């Protein structure tokens, strides 16, 4: 089973998972669920905040000269615990969840809104569990302390 999950991780990197969910949102849109300007304003606000979180986190990782590749968490050189990482162990995935929710709101997809927790579960099982296992091995007590202090999502 573990080997199968490892293959799925390679076949379905997080950005692809997000795109698949966005396509599903677009296919399940409903004009009855659209509240016009309210949906648009909420969507834009959520998308901007989510994208800013993703970009800031990527910038932090770049400045610390550590890997952003979720398939190679073992290549991490530094455990980043400041900025967005001070309140979420997975700010990029949290930002991706926000983008998925923003898009579902924008197109009026009730199914898409309800699927946000499913997106988070898929990412957690396919990527976060493996990444955190590698970080635990690589950083030991430093990781365990961080893990106790900061929640996985929020």
From TrEMBL:
Q: How does it sit in the membrane?
A: Multi-pass membrane protein
Q: Does the keyword Transmembrane helix apply?
A: yes
The protein's UniProt keywords, in alphabetical order, are: Membrane, Transmembrane, Transmembrane helix
Principal place where this protein is found?
membrane
Annotated localization: Endomembrane system
Output the InterPro entries linked to this UniProt entry: Phopholipid_MeTrfase (IPR007318)
Indicate whether Transmembrane appears among the record's keywords. yes
Ranges annotated as spanning the membrane: 40-59, 101-128
- Which superkingdom? Bacteria
Q: Under what name is this protein listed?
A: Isoprenylcysteine carboxylmethyltransferase family protein
Q: Which organism is it from?
A: Citrobacter murliniae
Task: Supply the source organism's classification.
Answer: Bacteria, Pseudomonadati, Pseudomonadota, Gammaproteobacteria, Enterobacterales
